[in-house]
Design brief:
196 residues, 8 helices, globular
Length: 196
């Protein structure tokens, strides 16, 4: 379950563990000629106070520096908790403002940006070249997950904006689909016919 995943991640998400994990992952990335290494998340408790936010930003910068030394672009995959203001600051915005682009790119998850109350189109417009990959994930009217193309997110506009911003890689996804094969088939059919 998602709660079990969070509990396990918290157990092993200390600074040393995270940076050691980045170092370990970089070894494989170098052998494979991989150019991107994306951190799937920092836990929500790293974004609850300004002090914790500053610690999270420092940690991300350290991870980015390790990657830059190996000529690998470090990236961060967002969820919705990075969009909840902390002392009047939106954590995700502060991350993009204060961490140098060469040290951290964004793997923008459009569902979570939307769930966090923001518009993913704004991020593509404001940060061209900073979002090499994104997750295409749709939102039902209820706010739950939906098959791509069957929810509320305007993918033709979104993909056009992403391409204009230089996004190269798109990951089509639905968290916890009730019928995974059907979800994949529907998303493929929708995206294959989509005009943008």
């Amino acid at each position: 379950s998602r709660q079990e995943q969070k509990r396990a991640f918290r157990t092993y998400a200390g600074v040393d563990f995270l940076l050691d994990n980045v170092r370990y992952s970089l070894e494989g990335a170098a052998q494979l000629g991989q150019k991107h290494l994306v951190l799937p998340a920092l836990m929500p408790d790293g974004f609850t106070t300004r002090a914790k936010l500053d610690e999270s930003i420092a940690l991300l910068r350290q991870a980015g520096d390790l990657c830059a030394q190996m000529d690998v672009q470090f990236g961060y995959h967002n969820h919705d908790w990075e969009f909840k203001p902390v002392d009047g600051v939106v954590p995700f915005d502060l991350m993009l403002e204060t961490i140098e682009p060469e040290l951290m790119a964004s793997q923008l998850d459009v569902y979570w940006v939307t769930k966090g109350g923001r518009d993913p189109l704004e991020y593509f417009a404001e940060h061209p070249g900073r979002i090499p990959s994104c997750h295409l994930k749709d939102m039902a009217e209820s706010g739950d997950f939906a098959d791509v193309g069957y929810g509320t997110i305007d993918f033709p506009r979104l993909v056009a904006a992403a391409q204009a911003a230089g996004t190269e890689y798109y990951f089509v996804e639905r968290d916890g689909p009730p019928e995974p094969i059907r979800t994949a088939e529907r998303a493929y059919a929708y995206l294959n016919e989509m005009i943008y």
